[in-house]
Structures are given as structure tokens and as C-alpha cells.
Amino acid sequence: MQSLLENMGRQLDVLLAPGGMLQVGAILAIILVSWWVGRIAREAAARDSREHTGTQGFMKEAVLILSPHLAALLLTAATGGLFHAWKAPTAIIDTAITLTALLLLIRLVIYVIRIALGERSPMKGWGNTISLIVWVAASLHVLDWFEQLVKALDSVGISAGAARISVWSVVKLLFTVSLFILVAASIARWIERRLMGMSSLAMGTRIGVSKFTQASLIGLSILLGLNAAGLDLTTLNVLTGAIGIGLGFGLQAIAANFVSGFVLLMDRSIKPGDVISFTGTTGTTTEGFGWVQELRGRYVVVRDRDGVETLVPNQHLITNPVINWSYTDPRVRLKLPVRVSYKDDPEEALSTLLQATEGHPRILLDPAPVSRLMAFHDSGFDLELRFWISDPQEGVNNVRSDVNRKIWRLFRERGITIPVTQREVVLQMQPGDGTGLPARTPDA
After folding, report:
1. Is the peptide bond before 367 cis (omega within 30 degrees of 0)?
2. Nearest-angstrom CA–CA distance, 203 and 253
3. CA 243 to centroid of chain Cα atoms
4. How far apart, in whole angstroms, are the C-alpha atoms of residue 49 and residue 207?
């Protein structure tokens, strides 16, 4: 720590000298001009309403990002040349040229890495922050301050038995683990892109393999990062054992959902785009009717016709009956029960039911609609109209409504009646005390 403070004091003396103050002033002016150049570039990009894609779009974004750094490098180099021509002190200017060129190079490399990872990369939006952190570390090496800073941070810490925890060890651990996780996430995203391009594999299989690979690589990267940071993993046996017990008892529902999610992805029983309903019974009921939007690690997103998205736990889909309307064949049969009076001709009613399906764009002609006489009720004939549709994702009740309305219109035109259930109550007077109730028998 003492050597670091002494070195900083010497550097401060150089900065406060007349020649140093002049160089610092020139550098501050260069920073302001570079910031102004970057602002002008952003405003010009905002005024450009043309859409640039592909290589042209990447080049435009690169110019927008690197323009202030490039302007700073050119201005610093030109200022250094003027100072050399005037025989003025240039130590600070020369160091600034090196650091500015280093910042430009780091920003360019970070941008290229982000483009290589894709638009969904977690590095998007963090380019300036990551570049600044890397640049500060590299600048400390250039200024020969890094080793002294490491010694200063390592001198501050606590001892825990045979181990010692210092500020430097914590910083090193966080940086190493973060770096390994970033590399693992990049590899996982590259594998995901390759898998999504394999049309020979089912979508569920592709999603399942990509999610499993991502989780495995992230877990492995954490272990490798801890080991690379110098942490003895055998010291974590007790901790990992406690965590395992906690997961077993406290987080078993979450673990079950994650495992169920992988099962759903691998067995392809439910896929994005499937039409499902949660009823527990078979048939064409629409209770819990919705479309599978996406499969996540813990839940499935199901969107109904009201636009409401329900997050269904994966375990619910594994342990409970689920009707998949489009599992092998998207065609489904709908049934409409109708009751007609005994005064009407059932043959005419059956023919009228078939005519109610004619001309509807969603009702299939193969298999053809059929009408059946199902039973004799106490108030009339029980008929049933059956027809098929091939697009249940467009709704089921709307087709039922259309056909029911046409049935009602045709029945009225042809005089076919739908009986209303009636009940007759007959009161029979019994001989007694005039109340209609049987006379009481006296007690013995």
C-alpha cells in the first residue's frame, strides 16, 4: 500500500507541474471535442430514417460507436505532434495516445464479439461498461500500477482458519466466474442457433437439447471459474451437501417443474402451437381451451381466446390429464344435441340439421356431417348433429353458435318445434278434517 501511495504522489507531482497542467488541459479539451463528435454522429443517425440491414447496418453501427474514440485518438496524436514540434513536455500526451488507442481497440473487439454472439446476446447494451472495465485493467498494466494495486488489495482481508480471504481474492473470484459464465453463455447461444437451424429435428427436441446444454454449460462454467480462481472445491462439500438437502425438501416443487419441462420437451407430447384444454375428461369441451405459446424451464405459456396468458406449471401437465387437440391430427368432431317435439317428423328434423351445416367455410365435407336420433325423451326426440372441423385453434364455440343459429332459423321456417319441459302437479283431496290431509289416528 505504501509503495502505491508513493507512486501516485510522484505522478501527481508531474501533473501539477506547469508542463503537466498544459498537457492535462489539452487532454480535457480533446475529451470534450470527442464527446461532441459522438453526439453529432448520434444525431445524424437519428435523422437517417433509412433502414440498414446486414453488413451495411453493422458498418453504420460501428461508425456510430467508434467515432468518438477515433476522433479522440486523432486529436491526441495531432496534439502530441504539436507538443513535440514546440519542444514542450509530452510524457502525459504520449501516455494518453497509448491509452486512447488501447480504448479504441478494446471497444472494437467488444463490438465484434457482440455481433458474433447475435442480437440476443446479453452483451448488447453493456458494450461501454465492459469496455471501460477492461480498459481500466489494461491501463493499470500500462502505467505499471497493476501489481501495486494487487498487493494493496491483497493486504486487506480476514483470516478464516487456515484460509485467508482478501479483497483481491474476492474481486478475482467474481471476475473469473463472470468471465467463465460469459464464455459458457456464448457457446450455449451458438449451439442454440445451430440446433434451431436443424429442420430435421422436431421443435420440442431442439428446444429441449438447447435448454439442457445451456444449463449444463452454465453449471460447469461456475465450477471451472471457482477452480481457476484458486478456490479449493473440496472445501465446499459441506456447503453443497446442505444446499442439496435444502433443494430436496424446500425446492422439490421447483425441481419437479424443471424436470417435467425437460420431459415435455423430449417426448414431444406438447409443442408450441398445440391447442390444449385442461378438463380431465375427453370430448370437445372448451374448458381451459388455449394455445401453447412457448415452453419454458418451469412453466408453459398458454394463451386463450380472451388474450389472457396463463403460466401453467410443467408438473401440472405431467401429472394431470390434458387434452391435446392437435397431437396427431388437428381435426376434431363437434356434437350439437337438439330435441324436437313428438308432433314433428324426425326424418324431416334430421334432414334439416344436415342442411344447417351447408355452406359453412370451416365445416369439413370429408368426413361428412351426420345427424342421429339418439333417444326418446319424455318430451320429445333427442337428436344430435355431428360435424368435423380442422382448425380448432380458430375457436370451437363460434362454429357451434353459427350452426345453432341456422338450426333455429330453419326450424322456425319449417314449423319444427323444440319442446319446453312442462310439469303438471295434481292435488288429490283425502277424506279427513277438511284440510286435505288424512285424519289423525288417536293414540292407543
Report:
1. yes
2. 26
3. 27
4. 37
**Mind listing the domains of the chain with CATH numbers?**
1-154 (no CATH), 271-324 (2.30.30.60), 332-414 (3.30.70.100)
Please give the Cα distance from 207 to 227 (Å, whole number). Answer: 30
Banded pLDDT at 412 (limits 50, 70, 90): very high
Q: Report how far apart, in Å, the C-alpha atoms of 319 and of each of 114, 293, 322, 409 are.
A: 42, 20, 9, 45
Query: Integer distance in angstroms from the first to the last C-alpha of the chain?
Result: 116
Most distant pair of Cα atoms in the chain: their distance:
141
Q: What is the pTM of this model?
A: 0.45
Query: Between vectors from CA 362 to CA 359 and to CA 364, what angle results, nearest 5°?
Result: 80
Q: Which helix (H) or strand (E) holds 313?
A: strand 309-313
Contacts of 361 (CB under 8 A, 6+ apart): none
- Whether the CB-CB separation of 271 and 283 falls below 8 Å is answered with no
Reported as a single tens digit per residue, the pLDDT across 2-56 is: 555 555 566 665 566 666 788 788 888 888 998 898 888 878 777 765 665 666 7
Helix (H) or strand (E) holding 241: helix 237-250
Reading the block at residue 250, the C-alpha cell is 424446500
Q: Indicate the burial class of 304 (C-beta count within 10 angstroms; 0-12, 13-18, 19 or more).
A: middle
